[in-house]
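Running this now, will post back.
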Amino acid sequence: MTDDKRAKLLRTKILANQLNRTSRKGDNLVVDAQSLKRSSNIDSQQLRMGMLNKDRLTSLQFQKYEASLLFGSIKLVKHSETELKEAEDFFKKQLVPGGQNGHCDACWDDVLTLGIDGLIQKNDALKNESKGETADTYQSFVYALEGLSAMIENAGAGEKIAHDPPETFQEAIQLIWFVMLGIMIGDKVHLVGPGRLDSRLYDFYQRDLKKRNISSDYALKLIEDLYFLINDFESSGLAYGVMVGGRDANGNDITNDLSYLCLEALRRTNLVYPTVGICWHENTPDALTSLAVELIADGYTTPAFFNDEIIQKGLLKYGVPKAEAWDYINSACVEITPCGSSNIWVASPYFSLCEILLKKLKDTQEITSYDDFVASYFEFLKTKIIEGVAIQNELRESRCLYGRKPLQSVFTRDCMAGGKDIDNGGARYNWVECSFVGLANFVDSLFVIKEEIFNQKNMNFAKFKQILEADFADNEFLLKKILEYPKYGQNNPSVDKEIIRVMEFIQSQCANFKMLPDNSPFVPGSFCWIMHQRLGAECGATPDGRKAGFPFADGAGPAQGREKFGPTAAINSVTSWDHSPMIGGSAFNMKFNQSLFNSPEMTNKLKQLIVVFLKQGGFETQINVVDNSTLKEALDHPELHNDLVVRIGGYTDYFTRLSPEMQQEVLQRTEYNEL
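Update: finished.
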């Protein structure tokens, strides 16, 4: 069987299964209820969660696709209606903590050197030196590791990596998948990604090459199969991150052969997972940049460019030492977390800047100066930030009481060293990343308010509120005038200075707050996932000319259809402010017509544009190369385009599976027809 045919067989089967699912494989409410009932006489929440983890993992059943080189495809298990009803009734009476989880990369160091049995022995020894809750914590870690070992044996992968450290590249990448899967199912967390595969696996790859036990082609197939397994496990609509390239703590480029293979693996898999982010810096090899741009120009949406300089600067700002600041991951869409060390909650919460503006307008008396109005809005926004921080801290207290994640704790730095679960403050980094949505609409709205109310004095606040509440009905002339005002994304200094003011306020205010359990930072971001559509649907008309219910701009980019002066002008606006504190994520989407890239020269122009964005201080960019005619055809004939993948707000999804509102949002983004 040729490599192309093998990949096509896997892709076809996994795509069909993924499109027919609305949730990931493996979660089992019946097993959960039965386990918790069995342990109901045990007082220690930590021990109970260790037992639950083990029960979840040992109950999993597996299948193996004939063409796959890796094991670990979960078989769906059906339960009777009676069993499901009993489980649902049981959980109605249980306290389930809220708050974020997952969105991380595991710490691979110990398992790749000690193996699972070595980790069990290490935790057993620590337990014997401890007492009370600490001893219970280590015992829960042992339970979880025993479950992981049994799960691997049940999957048919053999006893070797179920107990001993991997010796080959294939064993190492197989173990990485099982650990990811074990954490996600065993602790019921989401989006534990493969992380920096090129750095983690390079020594295994080099040793196998020297022994002639592997070829680059075979390594590529193994990476492809890891990508297939992720898609086989997870339904669409989320994000898993692989990162490649970047620099080490001494500033040296760490691109290697696997960096290229991790990108190349996207060509034959071509599904929604994972995204592969290039940690770009000025010494990134041109060949790596060119490969990513070539894939983008060919219509692959999953490569993305992250600004290594900006991100490391931001991590240093939040207390990550230089020795660790290079080792980060986009933990799902574009939010950044340190690898293997994080209990970081992302997108917690989302703040709808324009919804807050409309609430402020309802309470605004006549204010005589624009600066006073902005100051009053900022004070109101501050109260919303205070409320958001309080809610997240309450959730963290709840998580400590009713949560616990023993297996994730084993694979998170400082949890084992301190004898504390990740939900009990054991992780090295515990900050919370919030996200501000509708940034461009808000900035454009401020400019309109400044002009219409304060400079030209065409109306007062009361009149403008009436117009907005009526969704501009019978005010078409005013709406047309507003839409013709300069906008963010047009390289207009008068508008762009407003976003500088806004971002400086957001960044300074977030810095005033501390998060449980250890006074961690409250970190801002501006990425949206799908929340620009959801929050837009809940928001009335806004002063920038956006009609009621229409999606907000996604991420840090301009609002839909407002980049009238091309991509370079948009880039100049987006990079007019400091992105380094925005470790919560700052995405910039661009969309180009497929017909543009009909020659190597045009693809090279795209590469030059991306490099300009990064050199000017942009945080991250991702690109859709698809023409609107294809999107419209997919609307009319979805059955012919069920594998059409598009970038949304930092993640990729199948276009035909998006909500009608999100499909229209993608269509209405500015499509650049020239570079």
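Residues 370-402 form the longest helix (33 residues). More later if anyone needs it.
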